[in-house]
From TrEMBL:
PROSITE patterns: RASGEF (PS00720), RASGEF_CAT (PS50009), RASGEF_NTER (PS50212). This is RGF1B protein. The keyword Lipid biosynthesis does not apply. Keywords: Guanine-nucleotide releasing factor. GO terms for molecular function: guanyl-nucleotide exchange factor activity. Residues 81-211 form the N-terminal Ras-GEF domain. It comes from Glareola pratincola. GO terms for cellular component: plasma membrane. The lineage of its organism: Eukaryota, Metazoa, Chordata, Craniata, Vertebrata. The keyword Transmembrane does not apply.
């Protein structure tokens, strides 16, 4: 459904050599670029802290799929099988999150529950319950043991808050959430000066993160405001956009590096909770409203999907702009080389965006132009991104890149930028494939182990620091140069190579009429 790709000449060390043939290239319409938005309603900060070591946090033993081979054990409202937590009541799971004198929750559990709990309640409601349980523990402590209790439990509560604020900082953009945090922090600081400094550092780090993401969102808004239709700019200021991408950057590898800069920066701002919040629906045990309703926040995820669409349209615009056939062919070959470099870097998202742009109908219909293009390298790349067998070739390449990243000695080798729309699709179908609650009303925690496992892998990839130097000129061009709309692309395409049938001729007449109004 998404794409049948085709691209040439790859020297990717981590790919198997088994996949090298492709016989067809299907044209893509621009509508396919936003299909993920339609299906799923789906956008340099300080690096997200690595409180959990995400790469090592989940493994195949996180839960056991063979649920019914032995009797389940019931432990305080939590159901286990082979020592793996499978389900439990929401209240029991909340209790399991809160540390006590003799217990601190496993980091995998903290991440999984904080990620999935928002399907059942607001984060500020969860924080309020955590505060209440901590207060109750202190209240029930024998008076003579109060000081000793504080010394044992306070560091654990502080650690839980640290993991929460570092891994899910966007939860604290809610004033109610921040208020609950400060109330609990105040109780912690009453335990002595040693805790006061730690709490102060925690709050300062959180506030700095939230300020940074606000600045990032302001930059995105400014970029969006400058992204006008290129055809309009051409008509009003014809000399203002005589530049093209090759004039700005004639080295495909350099452009691939700057594309990777943008990808990693935007990935870095996506919170793990956005994958869950994109699919929030009404909780069957909540009679009044959905657990997030209009408060869902997926702005950074959406901005990243919009970047993919922009890059695809930019590629199509650059190809359709030149008047001469040989210049259009040169641009196509340039982008083929850029795509190959993205592939070698491990930047699969930019790779697929470039392929998508070249497969848009206004581009794919330029038969005379394509006749002048050497497509060997393009065929190989498209074969690697072929959607058949559920993107088998791509998934094999992704596993290779992920393995290379785990054993890498440099940030350059650590880069793994997945084809993001497919990642969202995988998470969507995982979410849709089983219920959030079991028939007895318990939370289906087995499902959320798997969800957290997928998201944690993404968290590892997005924390890689880009090893390439920023080129402001290239970045500004990629992010702000006006691009063609669908109609403008077709008009430019028809002007370059005349319509071939009545449908194209009628559309060309209509577009020319509209453009002259």
């Amino acid at each position: 459904l998404l794409l049948c790709a085709s691209n040439p000449g790859v020297t990717l060390g981590f790919l198997p050599s088994a996949v090298l043939s492709l016989e067809c290239r299907n044209p893509l319409t621009s509508h396919l670029l936003v299909i993920i938005m339609y299906l799923f309603r789906v956008s340099p900060q300080e690096r997200m802290p690595q409180t959990p070591l995400f790469a090592a946090m989940f493994d195949s033993s996180s839960y056991n799929r063979n649920l019914y081979q032995s009797k389940e054990d019931n432990c305080g409202g939590l159901y286990y099988h082979d020592n793996n937590l499978l389900s439990g009541s929401l209240e029991a799971l909340i209790q399991h999150l809160v540390p006590n004198v003799d217990y601190y929750p496993d980091r995998t559990y903290i991440f999984t529950f904080l990620l999935s709990s928002r399907l059942f309640m607001h984060p500020y409601e969860l924080m309020a319950k955590v505060c209440h349980l901590c207060t109750e523990q202190q209240r029930l402590t024998e008076p003579g043991l109060d000081k000793n209790w504080n010394q044992k439990i306070t560091p654990k509560i502080l650690q839980l808050l640290t993991e929460w604020t570092e891994t899910f900082p966007y939860d604290f953009r809610d004033e109610r959430m921040m208020r609950n945090l400060k109330e609990l922090a105040q109780r912690i600081t009453s335990g002595g000066e040693m805790y006061r400094k730690n709490v102060q550092q925690l709050l300062q780090n959180l506030i700095r993160k939230l300020a940074t993401v606000s600045q990032y969102e302001e930059v995105l808004a400014k970029i969006d405001a400058t992204s006008t239709d290129r055809l309009t700019v051409l008509k009003t200021k014809p000399q203002s956009i005589q530049r093209d991408i090759i004039t700005v950057c004639n080295d495909p590898y350099a452009l691939a590096q700057q594309l990777t800069q943008i990808e990693l920066e935007r990935l870095n701002y996506i919170g793990p909770e956005e994958f869950v919040q994109a699919f929030v629906q009404k909780d069957p045990l909540d009679n009044d409203k959905s657990c997030y309703g209009d408060q869902k926040k997926t702005r950074n995820l959406e901005a990243y999907v919009e970047w993919f669409n922009r890059l695809s349209y930019l590629v199509a615009t650059e190809i359709c702009m030149p008047v001469k056939k040989k210049h259009r062919a040169r641009v196509i070959e340039y982008f083929i080389d850029v795509a190959r470099e993205c592939f070698n870097i491990g930047n699969f998202n930019s790779l697929m965006a470039i392929i998508s742009g070249m497969n848009m109908s206004p581009v794919s219909r330029l038969k005379k132009t394509w006749a002048k293009v050497k497509t060997d390298k393009l065929d190989i790349l498209e074969h690697q991104m072929d959607p058949s067998s559920n993107f088998y070739n791509y998934r094999t390449a992704l596993r290779g890149a992920a393995q290379r990243s785990l054993t890498a000695h440099s940030n350059r080798e650590k880069i793994v930028i997945p084809f993001f729309s497919l990642l969202i699709k995988d998470i969507y179908f995982l979410n849709e494939g089983s219920a959030n609650r079991l028939p007895n009303g318990h939370v289906n925690f087995e499902k959320f182990w798997e969800l957290a496992k997928q998201v944690s892998e993404f968290m590892t990839w997005k924390q890689v620091e880009c090893p390439f130097e920023r080129d402001r000129k290239i970045l500004q061009y990629l992010l702000t140069i006006p691009i063609f709309t669908d109609d403008a692309l077709y008009l430019a395409s028809y002007e370059s190579e005349s319509p071939e049938n009545h449908i194209e001729k009628d559309r060309w007449k209509m577009l020319r009429f509209v453009s002259e109004m």
